[in-house]
Amino acid sequence: MRVLWLASWYPDEYQKENGDFVQRHAEAAATLLPIDVIHVVQAGSNVNTNKYETINKTATLREFIYSFKYRKTGITFIDKFRYNIKYQLFYMRLLDNYIREYGIPELIHIHAPMKSGIIGRKAAKFWKIPYIVSEHSSMYDIKANDTYDKRSIYFRKQVKKVLRDAEAVINVSAAMNQKIASLFSVKKLLIIRNVVDTALFNYYPNNENEKFKWLHVSSLYPLKNVEKIIEAFSKIPPEIVNWELQIIGEQYQSIHTLVYQKALSHKVIFLGKLPHSEVATYMQQSSAFIMFSKHENFPCVVVEALCCGLPIVASDVGGIKEAVNISNGILVENENVEQLKDAIITCMNNYQLYNRGSIAANAKKLYSIPTIANEFVTAYRKIIS
Question: At the top level of CATH, which class does the domain 212-367 belong to?
Answer without folding.
Answer: alpha beta
